[in-house]
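Q: Here's a chain of 121 amino acids. Please give me its 3D structure as tokens.
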Amino acid sequence: QVQLVESGGGLVQTGDSLRLSCAASGSFWRINLMGWYRQAPGKQRELVANFTSGGSTNYADSVKGRFTISRDNAKNTVYLQMNRVKPEDTAVYYCKARVLVTPILPEGDYWGQGTQVTVSS
């Protein structure tokens, strides 16, 4: 079983910075990719940023130049540094990991419970 626990959300003002953390725990063979998604009220969940299995990063166009994803492999933790936040960044932010639990079973996707980020204007 794999658990993802996010932290770091909250209420901030436009232009502020915020850092989200997501730690993976449990019993698994390897994390193949890890990243952040968000879902605003009335909208579909969308990719914010992630690491691919090859180690490269992807960012949504709306956050490029403002958000930075990083990771600590030893801690199985991924971070999202959010700078110059805007009201449109308001959403529930979810951590997602694609995990190989054993070398035999296919990889599976796991989600955290989400953390609310609210940006006031």
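Q: Can you summarize the key feature?
A: The first strand starts at residue 2 and ends at 7.
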